[in-house]
Amino acid sequence: MSLEQTPAVHLDALRLVRGGRTILREVDLRVPRGSITAVLGPSGSGKSTLLAALTGELVPAAGKVELFGQPVPRSSRALLEMRKGVGVLLQGNGLLTDLTVGENVALPLRAHTRLPAALIERLVAFKLNAVGLRTAADLYPRELSGGMARRVALARALALDPPLMIYDEPLTGLDPIASGVIMSLIQRLNHSLGMTSIIVSHHVHETLPVCDQALVIANGALVFSGTPAQLQASDDPLVQQFLHGRPDGPIAFDTAATRRTEAA
Ligand SMILES: Nc1ncnc2c1ncn2[C@@H]1O[C@H](COP(=O)(O)OP(=O)(O)OP(=O)(O)O)[C@@H](O)[C@H]1O
Ligand SMILES: [Mg+2]
Q1: Entry's SMART domains (predicted)?
Q2: In angstroms, rounded to a whole number, what is the distance separating the alpha carbons of residues 58 and 51?
């Protein structure tokens, strides 16, 4: 197989276990380079767990995870190196409140490169410009709206030009307009910077239009993978139940999560 054909992500018979419980089993998946993949599924189905296997945070109980043809390493030094190539945007944004927007975006560049300060400053300006926040460098996170803060976190995730971007619920807490801005930014950046993107989202209607491939996780397995059009047309009762948000159907209720909520 030539390098061009090596997928950005290749999962083979993957099994993921957390707290002694199998969360996902027999996951086979190829994410082509340059594509955008949506990972959909009910709460507690294992979407974030799947992302944790991609970043090497969770070691698989069985099966294989390869990024750009390379197995995700186990040693912490090699893992650190690999993670430079994976941009991650988590739900909480994770901006440091005592640092300005510019300093937040500069963090990965300061931590992982030895570039001179003047060059870092120019790269930061470039990244902020890419997310439409050219003039926000000197603001503090508390001065930003939710949508702006999400875009700063996006600029920071892009700082090292990662070939793979992973988004976990990028629209949480945003209004429809800010959500539209974020989704079109994700799409535009993916194509203009030649990246591959994986988006975990509950927001089916905002996410499907920008993606090339959609996956549905439910009942401990990958129950659907195909194009958004194939997803909409699927007559699989699991897929239908999820797409239409029906409480009754073949998707089992997450009893472990329920027990925890009740105990809280
Ligand atoms: N660190 C952990 N230890 C034990 N169990 C865990 C851990 N993290 C997650 N789980 C369990 O794994 C299952 C999948 O969790 P995960 O966070 O991947 O779901 P999710 O699909 O991302 O849900 P959501 O849409 O609510 O974010 C859940 O049942 C959860 O309780
Ligand atoms: Mg999650």
Answers
A1: AAA
A2: 9
| Confidence label for 4 from pLDDT (cuts 50, 70 and 90) | low
Nearest alpha carbon, ligand 1 atom 28: 44
Q: Which residues surround ligand 2, an ion (CB under 5 A)?
A: 48
Q: Is 43 in the pocket of ligand 1 (CB under 6 A)?
A: yes
Tokens 């993921």 sit on residue: 16
Q: How far is the CA of 31 from the centre of ligand 2 (A)?
A: 20
Closest CA to 215 of 20, 54, 17, 3: 54
Q: Ligand 2: distance of its center to the CA of 97 in Å?
A: 24
Q: Kindly give the number of the ligand 1 atom that is closest to the alpha carbon of 254.
A: 29
Q: List the domain boundaries for the chain.
A: 3-85+162-263
Q: Does domain 3-85+162-263 have CATH number 3.40.50.300?
A: yes
SS (H, E, C) 23-42: EEEEEEEEECCCCEEEEECC
